[in-house]
Amino acid sequence: MIMLMACGGWVFWFDLSSDETCDIWLTAKEVGAQLEQYHKASSLTFTIQDGPESGQTVPHVHIHILPRKKGDFENNDEIYNAIDAKEKEMKEKLDLDIERKDRSMEEMAHEATEYRGLFS
């Protein structure tokens, strides 16, 4: 997931400059290629939710990169229902007016170590 953040408010897709838009897609392309290979996937789904009404739960621009495998969903478009369900679950657990509780440092360090090897 690639993200651009601003202090004190929501950042929307249309807030990005042309250079930032190109940069985020080029980065997503590079990250996606590595994740697809790492997860032994055959395809990728890239998604953007822009604004709270679209299901976006955090106030910054980001792209979800989902490695896909044949048969992971019976109907390929079911992935969007799965994304919506996960977003609703997150909203119930996450109050955006209080401090967000992230994964532990150990969890993030482990994931970063694995993914760092993809880009060395």
Automatic annotation (TrEMBL):
GO terms for molecular function: adenylylsulfatase activity; nucleotide binding. It holds the Pfam family HIT. Keywords: Hydrolase, Nucleotide-binding, Signal. The keyword RNA-binding does not apply. Residues 1-19 form the signal peptide. InterPro entries: Bis(5'-adenosyl)-TPase_reg, Histidine_triad_CS, HIT-like, HIT-like_sf. Residues 1-75 form the HIT domain. A motif (Histidine triad motif) lies at residues 60-64. The keyword Zinc does not apply. This is HIT domain-containing protein. It comes from Brachypodium distachyon (Purple false brome).
